[in-house]
Structure formats: C-alpha cells, structure tokens
Amino acid sequence: MKDLLSSYLNDGKEKIRLGQAVDCFKGKAVPSKVTEGDFGLINLSDMGSLGIHYNQVRYFQMERRQLLRYLLEEGDVLIASKGTQKKVCVFHKQDQEMVASSNITVLRPQRSLRGYYIKFFLESELGQAFLDSVDNGKDVINLSTKGLLDIPIPLIPLVKQDYLINKYLRGLSDYNRKLKRAQQEWDHIQQDIQKGLGLESSWD
Question: So where does this one cross the membrane (predicted)?
C-alpha cells in the first residue's frame, strides 16, 4: 500500500486536497425512539454499492431549525466514517428532506470536484488505500476526518468529470433496467413451473 501511495503522490500530476474543494460535516445523532415524521434519516444500512436505498429509509420528527446544518443537498457525498464496511454514496434530492446519521461523514463539493468524481476516486484501489491509511479503528472502521480531508484527489477539468459521471449514470440506469427485466423473466419462469405442478393459485 505504501508503494502505491508513494508512486501516486510523486507522479507529478496536479492534485487537490479534499479539504480544499468541499465543506465537511458529520451526520446528525437521532434517538432510535424518536417519533415518526417528515424527515428521512439515512443510516449505514441504507447505503449500498449502487447507491442509497431510499425506499428503506426511516422517517422521524424534529424541529426543522435543529436540522438546518445537517439537511442533505443534491450531490453530497456520504462516507461511512464508522462501521464494518467502507461505503461511499452520492445523495440525490428526494421529495422529503433528509439527513445522514452520526456515523456518516458528509462532503459537500464547492469547487473543482463533483460528488460522483470523489466517489469514483475513493472507490478505486488507490482511494481505498487512502481510506485505509486514515482509518484509526481496529475491529471497526473509524475514519479520521482530518486525514480524510487531507487526501489528494487528481484535479481534472470539470467537463471530463462530467463525461465520466454521465457515462456511469447511463450505465447504472441500463444495468438496473436489465436487472429488473431479468427478475421479471425469472418470476415468470417460476410461475410457469408452479402452474405445471398445479399450484398456480399460490401465485394469484
């Protein structure tokens, strides 16, 4: 890992520290027994490899003024700062306002870097090595916020970042569409088998 990082740091290419290109804040600590309400709370379990599972997010009630500094915006990068797995997701604005839980660090791109571009880098072999280097935990992940913000990201033109992002999002959309179709076809096959066994009523 040291050789990989050393080679990258000395390759002569332009880089920018994350801390120079983002605003950073920790998520909100919300009691588990809080009343159900209008605000969504994104937990680590809601973060998947392909994005945030908005359909399983739980909702809670709290005065909005208490949440103002935590409300998520389009393009925010959510990073698991604690837990057992490294996770990085980009937030997309939903119908209801949402916050991240306290074991998630939020990066809000301000200039030079797009949210998805940060995600791509942190999920690369090099990015994972950097995350490992700023992990102070033993049995579970405990990312150093200072260390995270010191990670140098390759600085490329925004137009190139946007090209990579659009390619990724188109591919993801196509993947999800094919996955849904494959699931429908598989369900149909299973249904045909049940009908062949004379058990079609179980699929009604």
Answer: none
> What would the mean pLDDT of 138-163 be, rounded to a whole number?
95
Q: Residue 34: which pLDDT band, with cuts at 50, 70 and 90?
A: confident
Q: How far is residue 61's CA from residue 118's CA, in Å, rounded to a whole number? A: 31
Higher-pLDDT residue of 166 and 4 is: 166
For residue 203, report the phi and psi dihedrals to the nearest 5 degrees.
Answer: -105, 0
Distance CA 185, CA 106 (A): 39
Q: Which CATH architecture has domain 1-156?
A: Alpha-Beta Complex (3.90)
C-alpha to C-alpha distance for 65 and 8, rounded to whole angstroms: 43
Strand partners, 107: 24, 77
How far does Cα 41 stand from its chain's mean position?
Answer: 14
Is the Cα dihedral 128, 125, 165, 52 positive or negative? negative
